[in-house]
């Protein structure tokens, strides 16, 4: 069974799961398994796993293939920030590490369908500001339309995300390729499942990555559009 024993809720968000890797920033909790936000609806928990496998995230320790490095190149757009760098050669199409963070859900009334009213069960999870709306470390994990047969809150759109702003692993330091000289995206986010069957985002190599190379993904036009007001 999914349980609070197994998946820590974020009341103690600053607590490290384990000793963080070198160059981990103070004030961010280091995770080795996903953490569930305190307000996460229990009705959505079964969506994060398969029917056959109970939700039981196993620890994923920091891989020896990557390290966290401060960006020292002044021409790099994230100069002075952290980055994720290969410490050894990584072959093409390799799972580098999962993207761990705090799992959270946003429920929104389906105003596009006025005939449908939000499920009363959903109302207790709705309203109030979204604390993840401005996070630079928030990835979308699963979206359900109001009419999706899997949606336990009919009449309500559901969006589940994983936010590593306050708690995460080294994957939170992967930068976007845009503006990094000579570089394209050599890695990408993929939806995957952990050994315990849990749905998660992962960082995969797209090509061979040499020792010393920075791992770079595309955050997507939508990510940048939301920050610059420009979707092109
Ligand atoms: C998920 S974090 C990546 C890790 C970040 N560099 C750090 O030290 O925590 C996303 C943030 O990194 C920076 N960033 C990543 N890629 C960038 C790029 N191509 N151009 C400008 N800023 C970038 C931006 O500040 C962005 O909000």
From TrEMBL:
Compositionally biased tracts (Basic and acidic residues): 8-17
Ranges of residues in domain SET: 66-220
Gene3D superfamilies xrefs: SET domain
Chain spans, region Disordered: 1-24
Name this protein carries in UniProt: SET domain-containing protein
Taxonomic lineage of the native organism: Eukaryota, Fungi, Dikarya, Basidiomycota, Agaricomycotina
Domain of life of the source: Eukaryota
PROSITE patterns: SET (PS50280)
């Amino acid at each position: 069974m999914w349980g609070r024993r197994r998946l820590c809720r974020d009341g103690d968000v600053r607590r490290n799961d384990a000793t963080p890797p070198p160059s981990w920033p103070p004030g961010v909790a280091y995770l080795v398994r996903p953490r569930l936000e305190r307000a996460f609806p229990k009705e959505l928990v079964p969506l994060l796993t398969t029917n056959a496998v109970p939700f039981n995230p196993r620890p994923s320790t920091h891989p020896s293939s990557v390290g966290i490095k401060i960006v020292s190149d002044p021409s790099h757009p994230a100069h002075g920030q952290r980055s994720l760098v290969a410490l050894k050669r990584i072959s093409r199409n390799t799972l580098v590490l999962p993207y761990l963070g705090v799992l959270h859900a946003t429920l929104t009334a389906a105003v596009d369908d006025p005939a449908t009213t939000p499920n009363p069960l959903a109302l207790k999870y709705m309203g109030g500001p979204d604390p993840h709306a401005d996070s630079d470390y928030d990835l979308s994990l699963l979206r359900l339309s109001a009419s999706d047969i899997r949606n336990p809150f009919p009449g309500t759109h559901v969006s589940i995300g994983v936010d590593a702003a306050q708690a995460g692993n080294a994957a939170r330091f992967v930068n976007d390729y845009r503006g990094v000289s000579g570089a394209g995206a050599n890695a990408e986010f993929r939806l995957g499942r952990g050994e315990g069957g849990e749905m998660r985002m992962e960082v995969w190599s797209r090509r061979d990555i040499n020792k010393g190379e920075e791992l770079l993904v595309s955050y997507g036009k939508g990510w940048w559009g939301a920050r610059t007001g420009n979707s092109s």
